[in-house]
Amino acid sequence: MIISRLTDLEGTERVVDTPNWCSRRLLLKKDGMGFSFHDTIIRAGTETRMWYQNHLEAVYCIEGEGVVEEVKTGVKHAISAGTVYALNENDQHVLRAQTQMRMVCVFNPPVTGKEVHDEAGAYPVGLAD
Ligand code: 9YT
To answer: What is the reported pTM?
Structure first.
C-alpha cells in the first residue's frame, strides 16, 4: 500500500509550481497505479490554455469557482466545488479561475513528474520515470 501525504511533498519533484498553478503530485507514474493523481491549486484571476494531446485528464473541483471553455465550440461551463470535468476527447480548453481553485486531477497515462506544458499547453508522453 502507498500512503502519500501533501505534507511530505514540499521540496520534492512532486511539487510543480508555475505562475498560474501549483500541482502537488500525490501519485506519479513510478507509483505504478496506471494513472497519476494530483492536488492542484489554480491561482485566482489566472487564465490557462491547455491541450493534453497525449493524456486524458479528469479534474474534480473541491474548492473555488471558475469557468472552463471548450476551444473547439466556445462553450463555457461554470466550475465550482463538486463539479468534475473530463477531457475525454483530449479537448483543447481554457480554464479561468475567478477565485483560487483547488482541483483533484487524474491523468491517464500517468505523468512522470518531469513534464511541463509546451507551447500548445500539452505534456509530452513517454518520459522516463
Ligand atoms: C486544472 C489543470 O489542468 N491545471 C494544470 C495543472 C495540471 N492539472 C497538473 O499537472 O496538475
So the answer is: 0.90
- Mark the ranges of the chain whose per-residue pLDDT is less than 70: 114-121, 124-129
Q: What is the 38 CA–ligand 1 centroid distance (Å)? A: 8
Pocket test for ligand 1, best of 37, 50, 55, 93 (most atoms within 8 A of CB): 50
User: What is the 108 CA–ligand 1 centroid distance (Å)?
Assistant: 13
Residues 6+ apart with CB under 8 A from 11: none
In the structure grid, which three cell numbers stand for residue 52, read together? 493534453
Domain ranges of the chain: 21-108
Check whether domain 21-108 has CATH 2.60.120.10, yes or no: yes
